[in-house]
Design brief:
The complex is a heterodimer. By secondary structure, chain A is mainly alpha-helical. In chain A, 35% of the residues lie in helices and 4% in strands. Chain A has a domain of 39 residues: Histone, subunit A. A two-stranded antiparallel ribbon of chain A has the order 1-2. In chain A, a hairpin with a 2-residue loop joins strand 1 and strand 2. Chain B has one domain: Amidase signature (AS) domain (Amidase signature (AS) enzymes). Chain B has an eleven-stranded mixed beta sheet, with helices on both faces. In chain B, helix 7 packs antiparallel against helix 16. Classes of the chains: A mainly alpha, B alpha/beta.
Chain lengths: 95, 473
């Protein structure tokens, strides 16, 4: 069974703080789901590796030209943020 | 009084052009129904405050002779589809207060045509669920039995159409989120070929699987709505134009494949199977040839789906950190701001899937889960392509059971995931699939609707509309 330490590590990777009860419940739930999805190990997929998928097979680039007028979207975007200072999004200090 | 119960997009369009009623009168009829029934059903999270103004603009277009099929048609939107200037929230607390600063091509085209957007409908949080129970705003109730779920994740949209609170709706389908609730609410649900409708302007869950899908009362309506929103969009590099592939469609001697051993697996309801066999007979009577087929890798679609979706959604949901949008919870540092915001902003299913996404992508497990799932996915695509060389369509039930009770599956997430067993393969294969109402079963004195699903090869979307209309007729 997945350990409490492993759940703790996953929660940190996912940027989630979990209560002790949540951690304990997640252990059981995550375990049974992982056991189910691991059934794909039974498929021999050697050949599949060499076939490209129908979707998302290449990156599509465009020329970096015709920029929009500076600042026209600022208000709409910055006003979505919970905390702002003028035209900046405000966050706590990082270093 | 406009008879909403038998109304279709086609009929409403004709009536609007003839001047039998105005777009404003039509919109008001729906607003009155919403007022009457939404309290019990909880289909709409918000009814837009400018419905009458939108309808007035549609009437102006109609009077000027500039109407197209969607002009004045009142539709509902799932709460993960952006409309510029309107609230949108994916039924999550973490998007509290968020107003869409833009909209995608699908909504832009509809608005230009003078569609009437009634409001945004309830869904599983970030489309994570098959019952609309993971919404932060309470479950939506099935219009045929309020003690049961409407399916999900587009449960509010399907309920709105099924209960007559909208003439049509747009949902999104990542693993069955349009077709499964459509089946539970006696409506037609369509998941088009991946890329045929731009994903720009929808809130992402699994980006390689997500697509907008119409929910309507008839197959013809579904085709009308699909054609109004489909097309390549420079803002979505995975979007495609179907045009060319639909030119060489077969129209006679069509063969329908039935993957018997897949659909007669453990867990399928006996009444669902009997109803499916009736549907097959109906197609046979209408000139289709039925052929049993084997799809040995397809049953693994669900496991493949969950791994890919966990990985993609945990990546997509990393943008919700309390800095850029919506809900924010303050803590003692930036890192703890993120962690506390996400702990309080996301619901239980979201948290579970975020952990699983971190797991399948973490070093040590990446090869065994994510990389393996990607290679099995290409095998599944190939298995479908191979199957469609000998059959034109593949049929399954849409769901293994009729609508289940509210609360019945919430304690066992895996049993909830299994509700998608028949719908997920089309998303993994990137192919189109259509769910059509196929009759009712009785449970505890209530009639519950079932759906019949047809899948077609990549880009063969029109084949499904043609077969669907034959099936309905």
């Amino acid at each position: 069974m997945i350990t409490a330490e492993e759940i703790e590590k996953l929660a940190t990777l996912a940027r989630l703080s979990l209560s002790p009860e949540e951690k304990e419940r997640m252990r059981g739930e995550v375990d049974s789901i992982l056991e189910y999805v691991a059934t794909i190990q039974k498929v021999s997929a050697g050949a599949g590796k060499r076939t490209p998928s129908i979707v998302a097979q290449r990156n599509v680039m465009r020329e970096d030209t015709n920029p929009h007028e500076s600042g026209i979207h600022t208000e709409a975007l910055v006003s979505s943020a919970p905390k702002r200072e003028g035209d900046y999004i405000k966050v706590k200090k990082i270093l | 009084m406009i008879d909403l119960s038998t109304l279709t997009i086609k009929k409403a369009h004709d009536a609007l052009l003839k001047g039998e009623y105005s777009a404003v009168e039509l919109a008001e009829s729906y607003l009155a129904e919403i007022e009457k029934k939404n309290k019990e059903l909880n289909a709409y999270l918000e009814v837009f405050d400018d419905v009458r103004e939108q309808a007035k603009r549609a009437d102006v277009l109609i009077k000027a002779g500039k109407a197209s099929m969607m002009t004045g048609i009142p539709i509902a939107l799932k709460d993960n589809i952006l409309v510029k200037g309107k609230r949108v929230g994916a039924s999550s607390k973490i998007l509290t207060g968020y107003v869409a600063p833009y909209e995608g091509l699908a909504i832009g085209n509809l608005r230009e045509a003078g569609v009437v957007l009634l409001g945004r409908t309830n869904m599983d949080e970030f489309a994570m669920g098959s019952s609309t129970e993971t919404s932060a705003f309470g479950p939506t109730r099935n219009p045929f039995d309020p003690s049961r779920v409407p399916g999900g994740s587009s449960g509010g949209a399907a309920t709105a159409v099924g209960a007559g609170l909208a003439l049509a709706a747009l949902g999104t389908d990542t693993g069955g989120s349009v077709r499964q609730p459509a089946a539970f609410c006696n409506t037609v649900g369509f998941k088009p070929t991946y890329g045929t409708i731009s994903r720009n302007g929808i809130i992402a869950m699994g980006s390689s699987l997500d697509i907008i899908g119409p929910i309507t009362k008839t197959v013809e309506d579904n085709e009308i709505l699909f054609n109004a929103i489909a097309g390549r969009d420079p803002m979505d590099s995975t979007s495609i134009d179907l045009g060319a592939s639909n030119l060489k469609l077969k129209t006679s001697n069509l063969v329908v494949g039935v993957p018997r051993s897949f659909l007669e697996m453990k867990g399928i309801d006996a009444d669902v199977l009997a109803n499916f066999n009736e549907s097959i007979k109906k197609l046979q009577a209408r000139g289709y040839t039925i052929k049993d087929i084997e799809l040995p890798t397809i049953p693994y679609s669900l496991a493949v789906y969950y791994i890919i979706m966990f990985a993609e959604l945990s990546t997509n949901l990393s943008r919700f950190d309390g800095v850029k949008y919506g809900f924010h919870k303050d803590a003692d540092s930036l890192l703890h701001d993120y962690m506390e915001t996400r702990a309080e902003g996301f619901g239980r299913e979201a948290k579970r899937r975020l952990l699983l996404g971190a797991y399948v992508l973490s070093s040590g497990y990446y090869d065994a889960y994510y990389r393996k799932a990607i290679s099995v996915r290409t095998l599944i695509e190939r298995e479908f392509a191979e199957a469609f060389k000998s059959v034109d369509l593949i049929a399954t039930p849409t769901t293994p059971t009729p609508a289940f009770k509210i609360g019945e599956k919430t304690k066992d997430p895996l049993s909830m995931y299994l509700a998608d067993i028949f719908t997920v393969p089309a998303n993994i294969g990137a192919i189109p699939a259509l769910s059509i109402p196929s009759g009712f079963v009785e449970r505890e004195g209530k009639r519950l609707p079932l759906g019949f699903q047809l899948m077609a090869g990549y880009g063969q979307d029109q084949l499904l509309f043609d077969a669907g209309k034959t099936f309905e007729g």
